[in-house]
Amino acid sequence: MAALFNGTVRLLVTRGLFQGDLTVALDGSKVLTPESYPARGCLSVTRTATEAKTKRRVRIVETLFGWKVRVLIDVRTRLPLAMAVGKIQDYEGQWLLPLVRQAQEGSVGAC
Question: Rounded to an integer, what distance in angstroms lies between the CA atom of residue 54 and that of residue 79?
Fold first, then answer.
C-alpha cells in the first residue's frame, strides 16, 4: 500500500502539481477494529452524557481498538503528500517531522 501511495505522489510531483513552498497540514483518522484483531492499538476516551430519567451528568469511558492513519496534505490542493499508519493511541504530533521528511524524499526522488 505504501509503495502505491508513494508512487502516486511521485507521479503528481512529476506532473508539476506541487511547486515552490507548500503549506501543509497533518490529519489523523481513526480506523477501528475489533478487540480481537492482532497488533491493534488501544485508546481510552472519556465523554459525558446526561441520563434520560435523572438528567444527571455522567462520565462514560470507552475503549477504542485499532489504528490511526496520518496523512500530510498540501493545504492549497488538498492532495496527500505522505502517510503513515500507527497504533490508535500514538500522539499525532510525533508524526509531523517524519511525514514532512517522507514527502520531501518522495518529491526529490521524482525530480
Answer: 48
